[in-house]
């Protein structure tokens, strides 16, 4: 049990009172509607705690009998604040949380709210995975394929049912990731990320409603999904109204007038009173200081669903509001569809309620409700019961397992982060693996930004090899002058397979030791180098950040440094070869790097509109050579001004040479061509001479000069790495900073770094065909 009393035995009344009083004296944030502050002296508070504790214990004793509704529970609790606590919310806070630490509040988690009790068995579901779709479930319903092996079971008519589309606002200016975002905060959507997300939610909902509507029409059933008749409910927070506006625009599709939304209390987010708007880190640090414990222990208390804020508001409190409130909304609007615009905490409460596991267990899973999870929970209210699943709950077994692993591993990563905000004093950087353009620009940016933020910066020569040999030096302005435009890696790189050996890593750690206290290591390199970074992060606790750099561009979720420069340089050569091919009719095979992945080769081939492409990913290169390469040449050889150019990724295996790639292709293709009957020319004309050649661009691409694009990416990720290491180390340590094409930089934990899949669609597009089954 996450909150077993012995794990919270550090919680004292004195500590809680000290902390609560400090909160009450916080300077209010202007965006926050601040609750009334009562100044009470510590002795008078202490004298009231006993009465408060007894009154709360009496309230908890009522729990098994249940509370008629959420309002009854809230007012019973408020009576304790007003009477036993003398109106002092801090006294309530101290008495309640002390009882929580003793485990005395547990009966609340089993209390029925109104007629509603958390189900102990699986509820009827509205969305089911394929494996659970039985004929009985589908009987009398419309079964809609949502993709991803999931089906939505919808009634054929609404009758006395209510459909509830519950949506959360997504990304707002003050983010719940970093701040306590409560109902007292007038929060607004983040214009760059929140507004497009809200529009996307609206578009997705409109699409889904349209698909179901068409099914109903097809079955000659009355279309109850008419957006013109939907009801809309929001909370008081501006971001839920903004979400409504975007979704309503999507649903209306420029045709209908959408009615004004109504206010609904259960859609409010949690009430954190004086804490609303506060940074979560500061909150945990202050509580830890007041209780005289480490921050992780204080976080354990804060994360308990029963932990209350001064005044009594807890996550459990919100849960009661949401569950009771949604049942009421369902009851009040039978035969209709209602759109509910709300906050992530509401969706979290819903998921916990819909999930049949015990409250604490489900809370532990869903307490980290994340951006990447669903934005809409689909609910049906029928015969007094809510059923329905968000896709986050209705995941297939495979997805569920992947998600559980992700949650566990992410927790472990965070536990390994020891660097605190603004603690870092030095950065050590190295470049590893195959070299790439842009490394210089990234290193220079690390030095400049690091120094500007008061950090010492050190470079390691020749990657992990240099770490094992102690080739570490402090760098200054002198050392990095002109570095941004340097090709390859100005501090060297290496392939050093011995680094996979733990004893070699230990030697490297001894060299790194003097830099590790208050320091972080930045590793620039490809997937192998990032595996090396992960090894010393997980094995030795080195606070490491990875920056992706490889001309192969084969790391999922990011553009890697060096890729654009390599493509640009290859493109110059390929276009030159195309020109001479068109002039002379020569057949060219151009080999580019990329033994491990064909992304670079594909980009080069497509951009140059080559006739064909051979990559290592190809399931049958021999068949491709015979069918596509020879087939194309049969048709195009001799066509005036036609070029014949094929891009080949290094070491692509085939039967014409053991080294693969372009090796062996020239004699084979030239030999085949020689067998073809001469093209019919005009009588009396001589046929042009046909030549077949191979060109290997090879390592020129790794040493390409950095393009402005690569320099810009390098500067951006390096700048972010330093800033985030200083300000938010828990978000970047043990991660690779991924550069998304739309210039969004995100942290991907090293354990989640995965190979990028070859783009068969682009491959097919380049060939003017659809990818065939065996290529997918
Ligand atoms: N599993 C690992 N553990 C420790 N070090 C590793 C691991 N994998 C790779 N490395 C280190 O990273 C270096 C570069 O990896 P490599 O795959 O050659 O290049 P890239 O980083 O460009 O993909 C290796 O030579 C080795 O020093
Ligand atoms: O020249 P080397 O060290 O044999 O490496 C060749 C490989 O290195 C690369 O240039 C880059 O690969 P990495 O990013 O994995 O180092 C590949 O395209 C190529 O197949």
What is the gyration radius calculated from CA atoms?
Answer: 32 Å
Give the strand order, joined by hyphens, for the main sheet. Answer: 12-11-10-13-14-19-20
The CATH topology of the largest domain is what? Rossmann fold
Question: How helical, in percent, are the residues?
Answer: 40-55%
Number of helices: 25
Beta-strand share of residues: 5-15%
| Biggest pleated-sheet summary | 7 strands, mixed
What ligand molecules are bound, each kind once? adenosine-5'-diphosphate, 1,6-di-O-phosphono-beta-D-fructofuranose
Subunit organisation of the chains: single chain
CATH architecture of the largest domain: 3-Layer(aba) Sandwich
Number of domains: 4
The rough form would be described as globular
- The count of DSSP E runs of length 2 or more, i.e. the number of strands, is 20
| The top level CATH class name of the largest domain | Alpha Beta
Distance between the termini: 45 Å
Poorly predicted regions: 1-5, 390-396, 770-776
pLDDT average, as an integer? Answer: 87
Return the structural class.
Answer: alpha/beta
Enzyme class: transferase
Pathway: Carbohydrate degradation; glycolysis; D-glyceraldehyde 3-phosphate and glycerone phosphate from D-glucose: step 3/4
InterPro entries: ATP_PFK (IPR022953), His_PPase_superfam (IPR029033), Phosphofructokinase_dom (IPR000023), PKF_sf (IPR035966)
EC number: 2.7.1.11
Describe the overall structure.
With 776 residues, this protein is of the alpha/beta class. The protein has 4 domains: 13-110; 159-271 and 313-396, Rossmann fold (3-Layer(aba) Sandwich); 413-562 and 706-755, Rossmann fold; 563-674 and 689-703, 3-Layer(aba) Sandwich (Rossmann fold), CATH 3.40.50. It has 25 helices and 20 strands. Strand 13, helix 18 and strand 14 form a beta-alpha-beta unit. Helix 11 runs antiparallel to helix 12. The protein is globular and about 110 Å long. 47% of the residues are buried. The model is unreliable at 1-5, 390-396 and 770-776 (pLDDT under 50). The site of 1,6-di-O-phosphono-beta-D-fructofuranose (FBP) has 14 residues, from loops. Keywords: ATP-binding, Cytoplasm, Glycolysis, Kinase, Magnesium, Metal-binding, Nucleotide-binding, Transferase. GO terms for molecular function: 6-phosphofructokinase activity; AMP binding; ATP binding; fructose-6-phosphate binding; identical protein binding; metal ion binding; monosaccharide binding.
């Amino acid at each position: 049990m996450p909150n077993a009393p012995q794990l919270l035995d550090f919680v004292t009344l004195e500590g809680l009172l000290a902390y609560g009083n400090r909160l009450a004296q916080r300077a209010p944030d202007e965006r926050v509607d601040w609750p009334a502050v009562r100044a009470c002296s510590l002795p008078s508070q202490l004298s009231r705690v006993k009465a408060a504790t007894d009154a709360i214990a009496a309230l908890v004793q009522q729990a098994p009998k249940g509370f008629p509704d959420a309002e009854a529970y809230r007012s019973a609790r408020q009576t304790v604040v007003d009477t036993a606590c003398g109106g002092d919310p801090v006294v309530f806070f101290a008495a309640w949380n002390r009882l929580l630490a003793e485990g005395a509040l547990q009966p609340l988690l089993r209390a029925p709210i109104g007629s509603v009790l958390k189900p102990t068995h699986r509820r009827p579901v509205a969305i089911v995975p394929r494996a659970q779709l039985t004929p009985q479930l589908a009987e009398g319903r419309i079964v809609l394929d949502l993709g991803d092996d999931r089906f939505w079971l919808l009634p054929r008519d609404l009758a006395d049912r209510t459909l509830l589309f519950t949506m959360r606002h997504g990304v707002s200016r003050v983010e719940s990731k970093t701040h306590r975002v409560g109902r007292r905060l007038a929060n607004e959507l983040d214009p760059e990320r929140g507004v497009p997300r809200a529009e996307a939610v609206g578009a997705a909902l409109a699409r889904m409603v349209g698909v179901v509507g068409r099914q109903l029409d097809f079955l000659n059933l009355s279309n109850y999904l008419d957006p013109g008749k939907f009801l809309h409910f929001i909370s008081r927070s501006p971001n839920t109204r903004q979400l409504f506006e975007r979704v309503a625009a999507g649903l209306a599709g420029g045709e209908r007038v959408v009615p004004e939304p109504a206010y609904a209390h259960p859609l409010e987010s949690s009430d954190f009173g004086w804490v609303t708007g506060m940074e979560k880190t500061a909150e945990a640090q202050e509580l830890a200081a007041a209780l005289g414990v480490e921050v992780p222990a204080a976080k354990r208390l804060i994360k308990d669903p029963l932990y209350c804020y001064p005044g009594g508001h807890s996550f459990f409190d919100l849960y009661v509001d949401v569950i009771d409130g949604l049942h009421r909304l369902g009851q009040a609007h039978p035969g209709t569809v209602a759109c509910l615009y709300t906050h992530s905490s509401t969706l979290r409460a819903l998921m916990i309620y819909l999930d049949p596991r015990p409250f604490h267990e489900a809370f532990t899973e869903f307490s980290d409700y994340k951006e990447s999870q669903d934005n809409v929970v689909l609910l049906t209210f029928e015969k007094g019961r809510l059923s329905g699943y968000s896709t986050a709950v209705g995941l297939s077994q495979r997805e569920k397992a992947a998600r559980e692993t992700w949650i566990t591993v992410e927790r472990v990563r965070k536990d390994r982060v020891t660097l605190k905000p603004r603690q870092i004093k030095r950065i050590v950087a190295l470049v590893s693996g195959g070299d790439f353009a842009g490394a210089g620009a990234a290193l220079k940016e690390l030095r400049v930004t690091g120094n500007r933020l008061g950090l010492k910066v050190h470079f390691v020569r020749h990657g992990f090899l240099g770490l094992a040999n102690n080739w570490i030096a402090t760098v200054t302005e002198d050392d990095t002058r002109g570095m941004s435009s340097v090709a390859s890696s100005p501090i060297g790189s290496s392939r050093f397979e011995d680094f996979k050996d733990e004893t070699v890593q230990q030697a490297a750690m001894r060299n790194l030791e003097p830099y590790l206290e208050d320091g972080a290591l930045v590793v620039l390199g490809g997937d192998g180098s990032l595996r090396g970074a992960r090894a010393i992060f997980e094995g030795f606790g080195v606070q490491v950040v990875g920056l992706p750099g490889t001309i192969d561009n084969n790391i999922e979720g990011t553009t890697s440094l060096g890729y654009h420069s390599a493509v640009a340089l290859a493109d110059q050569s390929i276009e030159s070869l195309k020109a001479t091919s068109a002039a002379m009719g020569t057949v060219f095979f151009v080999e580019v790097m990329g033994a491990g992945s064909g992304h670079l080769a594909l980009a080069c081939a497509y951009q140059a509109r080559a006739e064909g492409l051979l990559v290592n990913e190809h399931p049958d290169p021999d068949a491709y050579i015979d069918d596509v390469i020879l087939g194309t040449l049969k048709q195009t050889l001799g066509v005036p001004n036609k070029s014949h150019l094929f891009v080949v990724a290094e070491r692509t295996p085939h039967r014409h040479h053991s080294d693969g790639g372009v090796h062996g292709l020239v004699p084979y293709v030239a030999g085949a061509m020689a067998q073809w009957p001469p093209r019919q020319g005009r009588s009396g004309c001589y046929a042009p001479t046909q030549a077949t050649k191979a060109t290997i661009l090879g390592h020129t691409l790794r040493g390409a000069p950095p393009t402005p694009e690569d320099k810009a990416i390098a500067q951006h990720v390096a700048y972010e790495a330093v800033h985030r290491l200083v300000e938010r180390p828990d978000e970047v340590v043990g991660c690779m900073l991924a550069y998304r094409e739309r210039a969004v930089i995100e942290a991907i934990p090293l354990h989640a770094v995965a190979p990028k899949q070859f783009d068969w669609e682009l491959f097919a597009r380049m060939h003017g065909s659809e990818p065939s089954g065996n290529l997918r």
